[in-house]
């Protein structure tokens, strides 16, 4: 499995050290090689796979990862449900919502499935605490789970049908993401939204039992709705993107179910999705070993509520802090050897809001040392303005270093008494190589649900997620995950 994995943000790894500026890395990247002629009928071949793939075809490890994906997503959706961003969305969209068809996780309101999927997608991403496909940095569950859980409250969906659709949706968006990554991401697209809409359309289309032609059209209509730009990072707009991808995928699949047509080659055509939004197109990533190689089995879950490239530094900082009982007043400085993209993506030196702190390596390291954690409370407005944390982040010194990969860090805490504490992280907790355990996922879920739903209810929801394949109705998960 390791040899199959493209290193996170691989294309940027060979960039010269001079590319520290926000846009220089992408400006100096080598030109892409001429694309080979695309295979015929990429969109249709994918559609054929989606309409014929069954739950019984899924290997046991893929089903298990699908269940873990579900449990993690439900936890983060509940946890983010009362963030100001979600309050605003509920207030803004309430007057325009249709029939009360679906639940809002962690809340009392009910909305039509389009708006419920959008709001739940926003809620699940607002903490930047959701799942991550490290090969593309797609957060797969938001666009897919938000859509099919909403749909499951409108029509009968068994647990087995639900899990199959979830896996197929995640598989679709990650494979399509692979086909254009990293070039598509490098120019500024937020790939969770742009690829996620395909996952939502595929999963909803599966549950609507579209035929091959209808699924082809659903994928085509999804291709017409790419959403999300990286400029939105650090604002409420970032979580808009997976939410909108969820609702747009429903939109595409429902229209296709009524024979609303599209081009049959919307992914691969000369003026189709892949050629329009990226200078790289690798269609084998979409069609190669379908049903044998599962990208969904490579999904990972965040122990820290922030940008993934900061996780190695947080992991190292917490380890050194706990092992040596380090306090902020003892520290002279903190030196980090990092990959260029750490500063490219998380170089905010003076975040003033919690959402900005999620993209500040300075804040992430400081708060990890001060509080020994990196959960959603550590990336709140309270944390980014804490005087002790603010003072310490001024002592954090990230240095771009040749040979350091995006998933690595070499961190040294220099104490005022002259001691140097060092920790090198090859793979942080939460990676494919060092995955979070089921127990750690449950602890994360419980922490997120605290104060929103009762502990006993949280336990029942977790049990339902673990047991989803045996549920007569997947809607049970949504219905029991609301505030009382």
From TrEMBL:
Keyword Transport assigned: no
Domain MmgE/PrpD C-terminal: 304-467
InterPro entries: MmgE/PrpD_sf, MmgE/PrpD_sf_1, MmgE/PrpD_sf_2, MmgE_PrpD, MmgE_PrpD_C, MmgE_PrpD_N, TAT_signal
Highest taxon of source: Bacteria
Record keyword Signal present: yes
Region forming the signal peptide: 1-24
Ranges that cross the membrane: none
Pfam families listed in its UniProt record: MmgE_PrpD_C, MmgE_PrpD_N
Gene Ontology MF terms in the entry: lyase activity
Domain MmgE/PrpD N-terminal: 45-284
SUPFAM superfamilies: 2-methylcitrate dehydratase PrpD
Keyword terms of this UniProt record: Signal
Family: Belongs to the PrpD family.
Protein's name in the database: MmgE/PrpD family protein
Species name: Bradyrhizobium commune
């Amino acid at each position: 499995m390791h040899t199959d994995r493209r290193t996170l943000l691989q294309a940027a790894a060979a960039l010269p050290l001079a590319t520290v500026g926000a846009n220089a890395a992408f400006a100096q990247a080598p030109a892409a090689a001429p694309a080979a002629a695309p295979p015929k009928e990429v969109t249709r071949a994918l559609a054929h796979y989606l309409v014929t793939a069954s739950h019984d075809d899924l290997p046991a490890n893929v089903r298990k990862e699908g269940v873990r994906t579900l449990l993690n997503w439900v936890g983060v959706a509940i946890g983010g449900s009362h963030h100001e961003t979600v309050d605003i969305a509920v207030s803004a969209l309430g007057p325009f919502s249709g029939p009360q068809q679906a639940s809002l996780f962690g809340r009392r309101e009910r909305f039509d499935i389009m708006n419920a999927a959008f709001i739940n997608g926003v809620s699940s991403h607002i903490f930047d605490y959701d799942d991550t496909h490290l090969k593309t940095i797609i957060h797969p569950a938001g666009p897919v789970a938000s859509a099919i859980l909403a749909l499951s409250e409108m029509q009968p969906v068994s647990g087995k049908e639900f899990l199959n659709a979830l896996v197929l949706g995640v598989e679709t968006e990650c494979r399509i993401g692979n086909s254009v990554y990293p070039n598509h991401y490098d120019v500024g697209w937020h790939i969770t939204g742009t690829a996620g809409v395909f996952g939502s359309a595929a999963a909803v289309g599966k549950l609507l039992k579209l035929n091959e032609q209808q699924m082809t059209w659903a994928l085509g209509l999804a291709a017409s709705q790419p959403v999300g730009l990286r400029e939105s990072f650090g604002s409420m707009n970032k979580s808009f993107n997976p939410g909108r991808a969820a609702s747009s995928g429903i939109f595409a699949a429902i229209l296709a179910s009524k024979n609303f047509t599209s081009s049959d080659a919307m992914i691969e055509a000369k003026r189709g999705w892949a050629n329009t939004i990226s200078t790289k197109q690798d269609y084998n990533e979409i069609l190669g070993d379908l049903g044998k190689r599962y990208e969904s089995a490579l999904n990972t879950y965040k122990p820290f509520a922030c940008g993934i490239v900061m996780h190695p530094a947080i992991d190292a900082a917490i380890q050194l802090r706990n092992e040596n009982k380090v306090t902020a007043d003892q520290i002279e400085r903190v030196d980090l050897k990092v990959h260029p993209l750490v500063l490219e993506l998380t170089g905010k030196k003076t975040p003033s809001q919690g959402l900005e702190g999620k993209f500040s390596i300075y804040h992430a390291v400081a708060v990890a040392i001060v509080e020994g954690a990196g959960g959603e409370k550590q990336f709140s407005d309270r944390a980014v303005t804490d005087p002790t944390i603010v003072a310490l982040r001024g002592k954090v010194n990230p240095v771009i270093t040749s040979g350091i990969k995006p998933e690595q860090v070499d961190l040294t805490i220099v104490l005022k008494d002259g001691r140097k504490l060092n920790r090198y992280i090859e793979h942080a907790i939460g990676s494919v190589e060092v995955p979070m355990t089921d127990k750690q996922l449950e602890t994360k879920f419980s922490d997120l649900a605290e104060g929103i739903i009762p502990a006993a209810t949280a336990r029942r929801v977790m049990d339902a997620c673990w047991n989803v394949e045996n549920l007569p109705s997947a809607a049970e998960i949504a219905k029991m995950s609301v505030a009382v």
